[in-house]
Amino acid sequence: MEQLAAFLLAGLALTGSPGPANLSLAAMGAAFGWRASLGYQAGAVAGMALIMAVTASGLAALLLALPGVRLAATLAGCGYILWLAWRIASAPARRPGVAAGKTPSFLGGLLLQLANPKAYAAMAALFSGFALAAADPLLDAAWKIALLLGVIALVTTLWLHLGAQLARLSSRPRLDRAVKIVLAAALVAATALALSL
After folding, report:
1. Which of 9, 106, 159, 161 is the most exposed place for a label (fewest CB within 10 A)?
2. What's the Cα-to-Cα distance from 17 to each of 65, 133, 141, 177, rounded to whole Å?
């Protein structure tokens, strides 16, 4: 029971802390609204499920050991996150009842998560640092994935909601633009920090 509690607490801390995915969710909520960003959130959760499966299977470690793959993955991920930050920072001001441009997509959330270096590091730590069913590696991985998906669904909902609430507070165009620029800059900074670790 202690191992489970410690795993959940670590999972909450690692997946709930500010990082590229959570900051992008807050930014999408601020730029496009809560409802319009739900598909993006679902894509981010699905991306984490894929990362968990790849991490639990050992495939991530195997692929990243291949020459050039780590650099290519890092460059592609950084490029996508920079594009996403630009899109957030340049999103038009939201007005009630008026769409704020093309809404974020499921695929966008999925790609963001797959490009997120913090996600791989967090899942590697959680999957290697805890044993929930030590006698059965498949059951252990299944429990971890199921529990973490619940935690991640909660955390991503909270970040998306936070962003949407920030947008409501920033009803003036200059303040709205400033919030979006700060969130976009925080996304780039969080990615840079994750890459430096």
Report:
1. 9
2. 28, 26, 23, 24
Quote the DSSP letter at residue 35: G
Q: What angle do CA 156, 119, 29 make, to 5 degrees?
A: 30
CB-based burial label for 29 (10 Å; 0-12, 13-18, 19+): buried
pTM: 0.80
**Distance between CA 127 and CA 132 in Å, rounded?**
10
Phi, psi at 108, each rounded to 5°:
-60, -45
Domain around 58 = 2-196
Among candidate residues 113, 132, 111, 131, the one with its CA nearest the CA of residue 122: 113
Segment 67-75 mean pLDDT: 76
